[in-house]
Amino acid sequence: MSQHSSPLTSLSPLTTQSSSSFNKDEVEKQIKEWKEKLNKYICPISQQLMIDPVIIESGHTFDRSSIEEWLKSKNSCPVTRMELKVKSLTPNYSTKSTINEKVEKFIKKVIKHVKLWSNDVNLIEICSKLINESLDLIKNNNFNNYQKDLIELKFEKLKFNILLNEKDEEKLFNNNMKIINELTDSNENNTTKIRK
Predict the structure, then answer these.
(1) For residues 142 and 51, is the Cβ–Cβ distance under 8 A?
(2) What is the tens place of the pLDDT at every residue in 167-195?
(3) What pLDDT band is residue 122 in, cutting at 50, 70 and 90?
(4) Regarding predicted confidence, which is higher, 114 or 82?
(5) Each residue of 136-163: b (16+ CB within 10 Å) or e?
(6) Cα separation, 106 vs 156, whole angstroms
(7) Does residue 14 register a pLDDT over 90?
(8) Residues paired with 90 in a beta bridge
(9) Side-by-side strand order, sheet with 53-55
């Protein structure tokens, strides 16, 4: 894993540049390319990134929970409609490993580039959205081995709440306190796991 600056030292550059030093269209294109690499691993049934990919008799891969639910009422492949003689599910370790690698690369790129782009006032909203999507990706897919990245993303989110100049100070305070509490809870959970 690459070393990152501590969250406290990265807080200092909260000033934004008045002119754009990055091409907004190019940034959006780059983000789209990153997401497309993950989209190859979307379950055909749930349309979500696969967490536990399994192969069925037809040779197609699905997320375990989605195909199990499908097979409760149907005896065919959701993609080919081929009748299944055997309803066994074989773990697809290769796909799972690839998904984990792609997610890790995606999160690392997000963290690196958000820090870079955060000084450009024209990219603040894009960065904020990207941070939220990344946090959702980690949360919704139970990628528990990304705790350090999760903390960095939440810290960046704190900065963007400030940079977006939330008009409602009470809302800004509450949102930031929620993130700080999540960071504290994450740290306590990690400490508990280490003790066990």
Answers:
(1) yes
(2) 555 665 566 566 666 655 655 554 444 44
(3) confident
(4) 82
(5) ebbeebebeebeebbbbbbbbbbbbbeb
(6) 16
(7) no
(8) 55
(9) 61-63, 53-55, 90-91
Q: How far apart are CA 109 and CA 38, in angstroms?
A: 13
- pLDDT for residue 120: 75
User: Cα-Cα-Cα-Cα dihedral of 135, 139, 145, 149, to 10°?
Assistant: 10
Residue 2 has pLDDT above 50, yes or no: no
Q: Which amino acid is at 132?
A: N
